[in-house]
Task: structure prediction
Amino acid sequence: MKVSKSPWILHYDGSSCNGCDIEVLASMMPHFDVERFGVINTGNPKHADILLLTGSINAQTAPVVRQLYKQMPDPKVVMACGICACDGGIFKDCYNVLGGADKFIPVDVYVPGCAVRPEALIEGVKKAIVILDEKKEKMKIAMKQGYCTVDYGRLAVHTTADDYDAQGQSDAEMTEETEETVTEENAQ
Result:
């Protein structure tokens, strides 16, 4: 497997029994050694390429998961690890559980299991790396074609001609008012 860049993982536990968390840590230890793929665990979302979620999502963790996702730079990949992160698991009927991670942010890789095995986590990370490389290539192509813009209102990156709308983009067109402001600043 060819890895173009060493991906950094941000691990967040929604609300779980900690079984999956133990397996995530086990996959990073020397016996399973996911670091052989260049994977590094980080605590800063601004440095992370992959968001690895364990546990189901409740009302307290949903805004945190959304915030972590928004703080991560594009391109990014989200992994839902363990059956609780995939769909709520055995806790999905509990009063405080809202569901799996895909109800709040887009999930790219699902790794089911209770608790998820380190071997399955490593396979999931390998798939996430492939998806990350595909997203990077798509962004490179879009930037060359001039379609890559950032919509700060939705924190989304537009990468194709289909989802690129110059009228809806505040940073994609210069209005007369903006031109006047720029001219005045340059005159001073």
Summary: Residues 168-179 have pLDDT under 50 and may be disordered. The first helix runs from residue 19 to 28.
